[in-house]
Amino acid sequence: MLCPKCGFEQVPAAACGRCGVLFDRVRDRPPKRPSPVRAPSPKARAQVPWDLVLGGLALLAFGWFWTRTVPNPAPPKPASNPPRLAKGAPRSVPGAGVSAFPEAPAVPSGAPAPTPPPMPPVTARCPIAGAVEPSGYRQVPPYWLTGASGYEDAVRQRQASAAPLVVYFFTDWCRYCKEIDRELFASAEVDRYMSRAVFRVRVNPEAGEAERRLADQFNVTGFPSFFVLPASSEEPLRCSLYAEGKELKPASPRQLQDRIERENLRIATALIREAYELRRAGDPAGAIRLLDRAVAAAPQEADGWLQRAIGREGQDALDQALDDYAMVAVLRKDGTAHDRAVHALLQARRYDDAVACATEWMQREPQDIKPIRQRARAHQQRGDVARAREDAERCCTLGDEEACALARAD
After folding, report:
1. Cβ distance 359 to 375 under 8 Å?
2. I want to staple 324 with a disulfide (CB 3.0 to 4.6 A). Which of 143, 164, 259, 309 is the partner?
3. Whether pTM exceeds 0.85
4. Measuring CA to CA, how many Å separate 199 from each of 30, 166, 191, 336, 403?
5. Residues 176-194: pLDDT tens digits?
6. Could you tell me the residue ranges of all domains in the chain?
7. 333-408: what CATH class?
């Protein structure tokens, strides 16, 4: 039989062997009737939840209005100069969790490293190459000016031409003056030099009152008297027309030319020294003005060109400074111009020009280590590692231990 409470099947008995219920009590209880289930009324079945429907429609309308009236935010623009990542830093976007840049494929162990493409050779020309040595020619009259009026003309004209002025005082009765005229001033060599480089004036103090006043102005005490007014100077300097020694003999044409140019150079040197002090005092513009006068007065003096080039370089006028360095390279053969030019070109990141100037410097001084080292540096800055290493190996063969370490580096 089955227990009416737990459903345990068992032999007929008075009580359940599992739950212990008495079968007689269970049989005497009236069975529970299920509660009646009311069927929904027709009105209830037809009722629709309009509040939910209206709410949904309102949300749809609001969403459509939002998408039409509120603009979408523009995506952020990439930075024009993104910061460089430190060496070894992970290349990832913060918060993204993925790499921002594609990683290079790993090189298998033992495989040769990829060879970078070769750099093209330098075809630039050194900016300080091809200069011509100053000829010493100055814009002067090709003849003697005479008298006090001729002196005034010479003073007026030399303001536009940086040339020395010579003044020769003589008389008709002075036999020494006739000897100087015949053996010195009549020389073709003296005439050729003066006609292209010097303002020259002949003054006879006995010719008139103005000439006598001019002689007094120059403090003439005897004849012949010869004075030099160097370029960029108004101070007359007495100059001898005779050769050195005990004999009273006229100087040679070359001696006369050297004396005039020596006085000219003395004034130019003083201007260069004064310009140097001005530049150190913080007045580069004033220094360059003095150096302009010095270069015009003594164009064959390399120091004037060099100091002006340094001053112009300090004022960021690199092209003008290179023009002056070109003249220094012509007048001096010690590599000073190329050294400073290469350094300035590297500072200006004109690496091809720096390589070209270092190459020309090497051709002028093939046994000097410095131009080779400078060219190696220019190649390295240019990105040409192979040629930089070649120059380092060449320096190594000349005894540069630092270059040897660079040449042997992987």
Report:
1. yes
2. 309
3. no
4. 155, 6, 11, 34, 56
5. 999 999 999 999 999 999 9
6. 1-28, 145-262, 333-408
7. mainly alpha
